[in-house]
Amino acid sequence: MKATDLGRFCFRALTGYPLRTGLMLLAMAIGVAAVVLLTALGEGARRYVAGQFTSLGTHLLIVLPGRSETVGGPPPLMGETPRDLTVDDALVLLRSSTIRRVAPIMVGSAPVRHGNRSRDVIVMGSTASLYEVRNLAIARGRFLPEGEADRADAVVVLGHTLKSELFGNTSAVGAFVRIGQRRFRVIGILARQGESLGVDMGDIAIIPVASAQALFNRYSLFRILVQASGRETVARAQQAVLDIIRERHDGEDDVTVITQDAMLATFDRIFQVLTLAVAGIAGISLAVAGILIMNVMLIAVSQRTGEIGLLKALGAPGGQVLRLFLAEAAMLSMVGAVVGLLLAAAGRMGLAHLFPDFPVAVPTWAPIAAAGVAMGTGLVFGVLPARRAARMDPVAALARR
């Protein structure tokens, strides 16, 4: 039998029972679409987290007060350490040639008021270096001025959301706001940057670190952001930070230094495992679809005994009958895989429309693997009914027994 005849025979056999064929195609298509969409969500989550960390800056190290080895858990977030992490600790790090910039960070919450409008927001104290270290952008005005870190200038840079809430459509640069009980002059407005690791950069006020120390009446830093001089110097910069802080803290190893690359690598491994796990779970639906194909084709064999008997009576060998039924299973799986990929593409576009900030990305291997597994599943589960059809006695088949 020629390939064209084989294809025509399988097509007519499948279209002769549209409901049965449609159910099998639907099962296979749902399985393929589930694999592709779930892997796309996992890959999208990985890219989203990577983008969040990348937005923090490049060649970045984060110095946290406290060490997990000494406190029996993760480093404390608010400076609970044997010795406070200070602005001087941050500035002295610049003596290392592997470190380009440092930005001491102090964080607190306070009401920001202008006229009769008030909003409780995160207030961050830092220096002019924060602009380069964190890859910030200014929409209007300028960032914190260069100068000594101990100068408590009464100036503030507002996030774009905070500016809109307090000033509406009027200009804010040059105006005054009250943060807590202190008066600050607005010198700049941040450009729109969205959230970064859970912090809305639009709903934030940035003031000099010395002003933040006076405002919150404390001197211990929340953390220090360190920018290494290059990617190849990150490891040496990390060791330099540990050595310098140890020297200043009387030999105490009481800080934790986290590199940006280490965080990215950790999350990358987590999301790769997660993506493979959800793909495996979705792959179970392909096995279910394969079992459905097997069961329906077994029923089809019993319904088409007369047809099988006629083929064998006309001289078709058992191997030819086997190939006919396997070709039907392959055609079902192939068409189901194509429909599933189309459903996955539509689902991806729908998700991208509903969640425009979330990068729904389909890994290259996902549709290939899903289609391959669908084809393999269809063929594997099509073997049993095909073998049954091939082994039928032509006389018994013609007698429909």
From TrEMBL:
Principal location listed in the UniProt entry: membrane
GO cellular component: plasma membrane
Record carries keyword Transmembrane helix: yes
Residue stretches making up the ABC3 transporter permease C-terminal domain: 281-394
Topological type in the membrane: Multi-pass membrane protein
Domain MacB-like periplasmic core, chain residue ranges per copy: 21-242
InterPro entries named among the record's database cross-references: ABC3_permease_C, MacB_PCD, Macrolide_Exporter_MacB
TM helices/strands, residue ranges: 21-42, 273-300, 321-345, 365-384
Alphabetic keyword roster: Cell membrane, Membrane, Transmembrane, Transmembrane helix
Annotated compartments: Cell membrane
Family recorded in the similarity comment: Belongs to the ABC-4 integral membrane protein family.
PANTHER family: ABC TRANSPORTER PERMEASE YTRF, MEMBRANE COMPONENT OF TRANSPORTER-RELATED
Protein name: ABC transporter permease
Protein source organism: Desulfatitalea alkaliphila
Lineage: Bacteria, Pseudomonadati, Thermodesulfobacteriota, Desulfobacteria, Desulfobacterales
